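User: My instructor asked us to take a sequence, write out its structure as tokens, and then describe one feature of it. I'm not sure where to start. Here is the sequence I was given:
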Amino acid sequence: MNTVKTHQMNLQNEPFELIKNKTKTIEMRLYDEKRSKIKIGDIIEFNNDNSNQIIKTKVKEIHKFSSFDELYNSFDKIKIGYKENEIPNPNHMSQYYKQDEINKYGVVGIEIELIDNIQ
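Assistant: Let's start with the prediction itself. The structure tokens for your sequence are:
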């Protein structure tokens, strides 16, 4: 029997607001031990680093890739958190993850849908 698990993740204000507004539907992360435990149907609670506001999302799909280049090429830029006038750049993810970590674990695009604004 599959049990739904709840996972916590922190987010900076801008991506948090994009998920809250249902614009960003793909959360990009390193596919490390923590993220490899996330399954379709699980809940992710995102905590806004700035305001400590929490939103709850449901995992619809898990998309695994060997690099952020592949991930970026697979999705519309709006879904991964870019605005219409912005140029998506996979190198933006280097501020969060080192290349050797990406090589070791790969990356994941977690497709989510907003369930609830908790606070």
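For the description part of your assignment, you could build on this observation: The chain has four helices and five strands. Try explaining in your own words what that tells you about the chain.
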